[in-house]
Predict the structure.
Amino acid sequence: MTNRNLLESPRLVIDLHRVRANYQALRAALPAARIRFAVKASPVPEIIRLLNDEGAEFDVASIGEIELCIAQGVDPAVMCYGNPIKKAAHIAAARAAGVRRYAFDTEDDLARIAEHAPGAEVECRFLSSAPQSQTPFGTKFGCDPGEAKRLLVRARDLGLRVAGPYFHVGSQQTDPIAWRIGIEQAGAIAEALAVKDIPVPSVNVGGGLPISYADAAPELSELGAVIAEAFATHFPEHTELVVEPGRALVGNTGVIHAEVVNVRQAPDGRRWIYLDIGRYNGMAETENEYIAYRFETDRDDDPMDEAVVAGPTCDGDDVLYQRTRVLLPTTLRAGDPVRILDTGAYTASYSSVSFNGFPPLTVHVIGAERE
């Protein structure tokens, strides 16, 4: 995915060595789990090929992601069409491509899967009672746990293969108890299904595994211990654990190289730093200032002061941080380079096509795919 030249700004640089290290760290933290990479976090061909070589599965959200994975040599048998919002035509196309595993959270979507992907394996996404994450989904996804029981029985009756319940604790979840709560609720669903003679071969505990940005996040080893203990408490040994990381595998592998476009002292006395990257060409996760990225400059030894950080477009909402306390050198000037750390997840994939005429964020990949 390398485009243009290595000196252009802005650009995202991904380190494949760190991707591999993150995968191996998660494998060590959850040795019995099936690791299913959420492609949406970083749909970079080199990352997909590396993780495929490492033995990962893939959570795909669209026909486009399915085609991308197939182009990198991924077997459709290890993909799960995990987006519960999908058209009938897309289900049919996924089945034609060889995808045999689907997630759903409504009876309508379940009926579409049964019609257009008969015999498929299904996971029902329920809304767990987990505490709010830093970038929450709200109630957009997931049915009531009681409804999940009913829908999985219905799935069996429609001739589909029941995989089990599925939940997601929200992106960048920093409270380990969230997984304990979700696993306990999933266990109750499995018990109810057992009464109906429906076995649960696997439970998908979703993604949400956090990384450290400006604030520290729990280590994978700590989260893995909580998840493994809760899973062992509520499920028998033969039940498989599925985890769907995105950010945890790629978040700390990327650095955005940007540039100061302008520095302004606003009428209210606040200093504004305008970068050549903003919310529409890679920094969408700064919406509501949920994710606090760290900045590095070549002037970090100079005096520091607070600054509002904004993007380059003519949109008044293209402001990255004005409530979050961001300290930047007082000597920063137009043309100075700025590095935005831990930007490997949800940056290039969130970048708009051409808002205000600015091109999508370019991605460069470093590090050999194979040792």
User: Anything to note?
Assistant: The domain at 32-249 is CATH 3.20.20.10 (TIM Barrel). Residues 162 and 330 are 59 Å apart (CA to CA).
